[in-house]
Amino acid sequence: MATEGASPRVPGELERALRRTVAATTRTDHAAAARAGLTLSTCYGQVLDLLLLHGPLSPSQLSKLSGITSSGTMTGSIDALERAGYVRRVRSVTDRRKVVVELDEERLRRATSDRARRIAALVRDYDEEQKATIVDFLDRLTRAESADPPETGAS
């Protein structure tokens, strides 16, 4: 898609729309977590998303992929998600000394079924090319946001 002739406001409007989307999604996630007896942290959501995307992972793999370097934070998150029935720790099939964290996909699917229905209803109004453009944009945004974070702090 060409961007020639696009309004200079569009990037700002997109950023604001994405921020509204993230805020609304976070609100929905917190409400779903409360119904499951959890106080949702960003880390919990990341653990669930990473397991859904990658399958079973070790706690160290989860830490590396999420950027969460505190083993206590990761362990506490896995503990809370395990108590709520979303994940379970199992012995690795390749090395019985190691533990991997598995997602209970059915439990997560039940908890997020309302969102799945809303998304399905929403995309019904778009043709296949438009849907592909939306997915492409979100994939590109994910890659851009996944790049090395900028350095912070005093220079």
From TrEMBL:
Residues 31-131 form the HTH marR-type domain. Transmembrane segments: none annotated. This is MarR family winged helix-turn-helix transcriptional regulator. It comes from Phytohabitans kaempferiae. Pfam families: MarR. InterPro entries: HTH_MarR-typ, MarR/SlyA-like, WH-like_DNA-bd_sf, WH_DNA-bd_sf. Coiled coil: none annotated.
